[in-house]
Fold this sequence. Notes:
Blueprint: H1 2-28, H2 36-52, H3 57-80, H4 86-105, E1 109-111, H5 124-142, H6 146-156, H7 158-163, H8 168-194, E2 196-198, H9 205-220, H10 225-246, H11 257-298
Antiparallel strand pairs: 1-2
Amino acid sequence: MIDSLYGAVELGLLYALMALGVYxxxxxxxxxxxxxxxxxxxxxxxxxxxxxNHYSPLLACLTAFVGGLAAGACTGLLxxxxxxxxxxxxxxxxxxxxxxxxxxxxxxNISLLGSxxxxxxxxxxxxxxxxxVVVKLLLDAFFRTDLGLALRATGDNARMIRSLGANTDTTTxxxxxxxxxxxxxxxxxxxxxxxxADISMGIGMIVIGLASVIIGEAIFGARTIFRATxxxxxxxIIYRIVVAIAxxxxxxxxxxxxxxxxxxxxxxxxxPSMQRSLRQRAYAKxxxxxxxxxxxxxxxxxxx
Length: 304
């Protein structure tokens, strides 16, 4: 059990970069980007093909990040310049990336067994703690810059930020690009950790990313950028721990992973709204009692 929890934390750190990418589009830009399912595979495909051709694993990761940036930029351009609905833009790019990823890989699956990777000489846990902390702090610093504030304002109130002279098309493209760059980097690291890249490795990634963000925010809150990015990282780890524990149940199988993910997301979405509803009811009941008491105090003989 201890080994499975340790492995869950390690996987959570590997997927934390993807969760941070989803946080940028889902929470900051309020952009429903489904490119994630394709760009995750793009990162793994680029890393795998470069490593098997004896390129440096670090260079492979950087190239995967650039590939994700390009995929995100295409989605952003379809939405801002092509005037295509954001959801549809992501779907179109996700479909296109399937063929592009097959072109990159040349076959549905590439094995990295026997090839050097970033984890050949360093523990995945140790390396990912460093990488995730560095990326999180860099994102926190970026979102405090003028450009970062403009990107945040684009998601909050695009009309207002346009009236102040900011180009919301540019900030949208930048945000979607950065998001998919992080997603592709996560895919590159996952491919190296698992020892292979597969054409279907990105299926369902958007749901896992949303689950991580929602769980993190429900538990840790998101009042500041520092807290929100930390919540996304910790949410990714908690999600993996919950999945690891769920798979210990005898009647659940590995093939039930997608079902477990869907149930976790549903619970994470429903619980906060239920809590808000209960708080509102309790407040309304308390307020009603206070008003009734005040009326009775002012007119003690009103009921006779």
